[in-house]
Every structure is written in C-alpha cells, then in structure tokens.
Amino acid sequence: MRRAITAVIGALAVLALAGCIGSPTGSVESGPTPETTASGPSEPVAASTAAAPGPVTAWRPVGPPSIVASGLDAPWSVVPLDDGTQLVSQRDTGEVLEIAEGGTARAVGSVAGVAPGGEGGLHGLALLETGAATWLYAYLGTEADNRVVRMPLTGGAGARALGPAETVVDGIPRAGIHNGGRIAFGPDGFLYVTTGDANLRAPAQDPGSVAGKILRLTPEGAPAPGNPFGNAVYSLGHRNVQGIAWTADGTMWASEFGQNTYDEVNRIVPGGNYGWPVFEGVSGDPAFVDPVITWTPAEASPSGLAAVGRTLFVAGLRGARVWALDVDATGLTGPAEPLWTDRYGRIRDAVVAGDALWLLTNDTDGRGDPAPEDDLLLRVPLASAT
Q1: Secondary structure class of 16 (helix, strand, coil)
Q2: Measured CA distances, 354 to 49, 92, 172, 175 (Å)
Q3: What pTM did the predictor assign?
Q4: Model pLDDT for residues 154-195, shown as the tens digit of each residue
Q5: Among 26, 118, 185, 351, which residue's beta carbon has the most beta carbons within 10 A?
Q6: 117, 230, 223: which is closest to 177 by C-alpha?
Q7: pLDDT tops 50 at residue 24
Q8: Is there a contact between 220 and 3 (Cβ–Cβ < 8 Å)?
Q9: Could you tell me the residue ranges of all domains in the chain?
Q10: CATH class name, domain 7-385
C-alpha cells in the first residue's frame, strides 16, 4: 500500500517541479527508546564523485526514483563509485555489498568484529584513494565499543575484495540505542565521525568524552590539527547524529535525532555546543548553537544527509520521506520541501554523486513495514533549479 498511496501525488509534484528546473550541471528512532552521523591540504583527499556546482545553485529531482537494487538486508550506507557500481553496508550481516550496474549484488567481504544488536552493527562507509592504495573506512559496533576501521579495497568492478582491517579509532561508547555511525571525508581531507550519546546523556556535554560528538581525525586516526579542544572532538552536545555533508560553499551540516519533540538540522562550527541534553531544539541560549530547522519525530527522524550546490537532502526514517532544504551559511533560504512521503517507507541514507541522488530504504531493520522487494537502493536524477 505504501508503494502506491502517493504515486499520483508524486507524479503531480514532478510535473509541477518541471517548470522550474534547468539543465543538469517520539518515534522508535527518535524517542528515549531505540534510536528514536598534523595533516593539512597535502594529505590524501577522499575520493568524490559529487558534482561541483556553484554555491548559489539549488538542485531538485527531475523524475521519480528508479530502483537500482532490491532485496537488501537492513542497509545503512551507500558509496557510489566512478565506474557505475555502488558499495552498500548491511547493518546486521556485517557485509559490504557491491551493486553492479544491472542491480545484482555480490559480497565484497565482511567487516571483522561486527556484533549486531539493537541499533548496532555495521554503519557508515567512506572511501579514500591515495597514490598507493584505495581504503574503505567503516564504522561498526563490536561487543565492547563502536569504532572506525579501514581496509584495503582491491580489484575492479565485479572482483572487488576487502583486505585486513586496521583500527582508526576505538573506544566510542556503544549501547542498544544512539550509536551515531556516519563517517565522511570533508573538503579539508580529514575524517569526520559522528557518535551518539549511547543513552548516557551527560557525556555529550563533556569535551573530554567522545560520546555525543562529531570527531575530526587524520586518515590514520589522530586528532586533526586545529581541533578546538586539542583532542579529536570537533563539536559537542549531540544526541545522535547520523548525517553529515558539506554544501558547495564549504559549510558543514548535520542531521540529528531529537528525543520526543524536535529533530534537527544544524550548521556545524568548530567547538560548537548543540545543547543536548540541556536543550532539545531551539534554546535561545547564546551558549548553544540553535538548529536551522526542527521537525517533530513523526515528520523526520533524520538519518543520512546529502548536499549538492546549496541544497540539502535529508533522509527521514519515521517520516518516510526526503526533505529538500535550500540553505546558505546563515541557514534556510526557503521553505522545506517534503519528497516522496510514504512512497518508499523509511529512508536511511542519502548521497549525491554526479547529477544523481542515491537513497537507501530501511524497512527490514525490524522497525519498518517491508514490502516483498525491500530493502531498496534508489537513484534519482537531479538538475539545477531556478
């Protein structure tokens, strides 16, 4: 039913949008119970297939999503590759899949040490290409902690494999809920890691703890130079960030699960304190950075976050939609636009690569209402909007 209930609405929305498109250039996941993201520019920079429009360009879909792959098992993160394939992490199996252009999936390998349970397991992926090697980074939950590892990624399309894992950072608190888990290389070449508060709350305000934080690291796992507290912590006061992205002007953004009242998108600044657990949503207190937008958990429960030009795409789990936001360095520049509400169920990840938005649904993780073909990898063509 959810596959068809908004099909007509979605088609009308696409037709309405076509007139302004230019040519391409307390939920379970957000409430207090389960899950209710000395090196400088010379360091190797993460591989990127993202488009590079000017910072004033807004982007929108020019057609409905198409199904690239189906039958995925609790997928969590997608990395599109230049050769037309994608890598997808599966939370509960610990496997990294390679999706071929025709949609067939094969296991590249399993990440050693993954211990699924609750909201924990295999989470975010990120790719780093150096002159000598290609590394696949992964955020995972072990029996004892959350951590980030990296593995050599060898071979080409159809024959990729994972080498032995080496630890990048460990000791991140783990619990049945609020494990964070998004990783990405920023424009500065450093690795950013989102952690949850692991349902501990108070450590989110402690700059000496890695719980409830966004971390900034060298590719090898050392605190990045210039970090505001002299350690790995870049920002604090987070409850459960599962999405980070940078718009074309270099501004960093994060999507964050609230508790019972407000989910958030925040503009991230070094040393910023985002209020949790003292405040949820807008505080009005100058000691804390207020979000640029909030929603009720039923409207969002945000996970993955993608950016292109000056547009953000926010993946909604309980909200079962994608939010399109146009922003500048000060905040929103227009109204938030909901896309594909209730059409595909829970949306876990959103990534922009080239002129396409890639989405992962997440209805097979025990909290959704899976259709026979779930879960899905979707591709949506994008174009600049006037």
Answers
A1: helix
A2: 6, 29, 33, 36
A3: 0.88
A4: 999 999 999 999 999 999 999 999 999 999 999 999 999 999
A5: 351
A6: 117
A7: no
A8: no
A9: 7-385
A10: mainly beta
